[in-house]
Amino acid sequence: MDKKKIVFSGIQPTGNTHLGNYLGAIRNWAARQAEKTNYFCVVDLHSLTVPQDPENLRFQTRSMAAILLACGIDPQQSTLFIQSHVAAHTEGCWLLNCVTPLGWLQRMTQFKDKSARQESVLTGLLDYPVLMAGDILFYDADEVPVGEDQKQHVELTRDIAQRFNALYNVEFFVVPQPIIPPVGARVMGLDDPAVKMSKSLADKRGHAVRLLDPPDEILYAFKRAVTDSGREIRFSDDPEKAGVNNLLGIYQAVTGKGQAEVEADFAAARGYGDLKVGVAEAVIETLRPIQARYHDLMADTAELDRLLAHGAAQARVISQPKVDEMKRMMGLVLPR
Ligand code: ATP
Ligand code: LTN
Fold first, then answer.
1. For 265-310, how does the pLDDT look when each residue is reduced to its tens digit (9 = 90+)?
2. What pLDDT, on a 0 to 100 scale, did the predictor assign at position 1?
3. Is residue 193 a part of any domain in this protein?
4. Are residues 287 and 314 in the same domain?
């Protein structure tokens, strides 16, 4: 039998987890767990690359872990852990920093976007993709399921892996593949279908559908969604129809239907109002059981912490020897 593929993915505990995170990433992690060896990580160290309130970050980190479990990540089938619990990630990041040219990081579009939005840009923000590369490489991951926006970072991870392998003349790191879902890879903002739905914009009412939003809030956001002045309900690449296209894409992703079937569902709609309510109802039904499981999990954080400690122990067994071996290859003396 073929060896199971190794999957690694991460998500930041910055709160405001939204439908884009779910459709572009989390639900795809949950869907294929049985076929793979999986590592899913709440990347709290990545969140520190922009200023955080300490108490809020601590709360959001547990909350993110509970969301992942509520969305179907099964600790029997997947290793779920918090990045800062496994020291190999920071230790190995330094080693990777010392083989990664600065120019590669300065070219990253996410760095350019995020740094343009801040007054003072932290060194960690520039180094963010190297920390992410280590996350992936220290587990020998073959596959990295992410939304479209992270593709460039996974490509950088491939470059770093290949550079290390070339420098030390061995096939030490596995060169991973980004896995981008065919549907839901880029959910756009409801208030502006030209920008991706984003955690950092989700405090603005009507921008995002957050996984923990109550049904009336979800309905409100969809009812106010920006569309166009026409009436035609069909999939389209026309930038004018980006709003309707986004709504249909969300409906397609949550129902699992094909494009023709989705359009048929709205053939009798009297206008965009019916479309908006139809999509809102489908989303509310998808999120209802997830929200119920989330609240159960958050009612017992001691059990949650126990589960995360177990995940971290499993993760250390894989990543620490890999980082120790890097140190040896790079000329460091290992302690006895
Ligand atoms: P922000 O939305 O503020 O940019 P983020 O993208 O940094 O936050 P992460 O926690 O880093 O959020 O992302 C978790 C996962 O969700 C990643 O795999 C990312 O590609 C995916 N993702 C984020 N936004 C979207 C979106 N609008 N559509 C589809 N996938 C998305
Ligand atoms: N940078 C990613 C989160 C992330 C990640 C990872 C994703 C950190 N480490 C490893 C995949 C694999 C983001 O912002 N979405």
1. 999 999 999 999 999 999 999 999 999 999 999 999 999 999 999 9
2. 60
3. no
4. no
